[in-house]
Amino acid sequence: MGFVANGNHTPSQIVIESDSFYPSIALDHIRQIVRIDGAVTNDRLKQAIIEEIIDINRLLKSLKDKATQLSDLATTQINEQPDTDYLYLSAVANGVAAKINENYRNYDSSNAGGKKAEDAELTVDDYRRNKQWAILQLLGENHTVVELI
Questions:
Q1: What is the full DSSP assignment across 16-76?
Q2: Which InterPro entries does UniProt cross-reference here (predicted)?
Q3: Which residues contact 118 (CB under 8 A, 6 or more apart)?
């Protein structure tokens, strides 16, 4: 399930902010990370990002009792940024990737490689798993979920 890129996008400079606890998310940064071109309009991408931010903020709500900002809970810095900022961005980006892949089934950001490239692309389930793992890391929980049958 790949993305089919059919055009360049114009840089938007759109930054989406939720409340001050969470880092802001730049629409163009999500485009770059998830490799989304102009086939997905800024308005549609912005809507997908907002929906993911709402969902992730809801899941991370319990962390607000522990600090005034998510970055206060960081355990390390990477490139002078708190690890929590990277994990939050990962959760949002992977959630958006799942949503875009689901809604634009024929979208391929490389437009090359045919079936071989499709086989190598992350699936919607992979993106959702990566989103969940980033959320679990932010919550200080393990990735492994064991279910008894």
A1: E---TTSPPEEHHHHHHHHT--TTS-HHHHHHHHHHHHHHHHHHTGGGGGT-SSGGGG-S-
A2: Phage_head_completion_GpL
A3: 1, 2, 108
Q: What pLDDT does 38 receive? A: 79
What pLDDT sits at residue 9? 56
Q: What does the pLDDT read at residue 7?
A: 54
Q: Among 29-38, 47-56, 116-125, 138-147, which stretch is predicted with the lowest mean pLDDT?
A: 116-125
Domain residue extents for the chain: 15-138
Cα 26 from Cα 59, distance rounded (Å): 21
SS3 label, residue 149? coil
User: What pLDDT is attached to residue 117?
Assistant: 46
